[in-house]
Amino acid sequence: MSNRVIWLTGLSGAGKTTIAMAAAERYGCEVLDGDTIRDFFSNHDFSHEGRKRHLLGIARMAKMISKHTHVVCSFITPYEDVREEILGILPDNAVMVHISTSLKLCEERDAKGLYAKARSGEISNFTGISDPFDEPKCAHISLDSSGDEGKSVDDLVDQLAHYFEKSRAVLLPGRWQPLHLGHEWLIQRE
Fold first, then answer.
1. Which domains does the chain have, with CATH numbers?
2. Alpha helices, DSSP H only, in the chain?
């Protein structure tokens, strides 16, 4: 089975980074996150074209890294046309995940005060306030990160578990066959 790229999209404060880091800890995958990627690529162009250029570059990087390990990408990715282009760049088994959280709850979670600055006009082109967040139509799955019962970080990572599992079948000359213990022993020796 080839490695996957799991792309988390959602508003600032939705819980993308928290979910990505929990998945990385559990499954040993690489994380590309909006907060940490700025250490490598400074992007101060928050126009549609600036964000698009930045995100498509990250998608290309994720595709390269996925040759070696699973990758979880955690970016707001506010525009549907850009999400569709990202899926066109990523491997065919990539998964777009919408981290669905209300704007009100994201504002309540905002430890940096970015939403307040956006509402007061100090920050322009802020997704959800002065710049749109298109409803993700191309998302393969939507996770509610409201924190309600059954929606803890561990619960949400559990919902992604099957994307990280190894295939339970192997192509042998001429046919597909389920794995048995002997096959699994050989695979685990690698």
1. 5-188 (3.40.50.300)
2. 16-27, 34-37, 48-65, 80-89, 103-109, 114-120, 153-164, 181-188
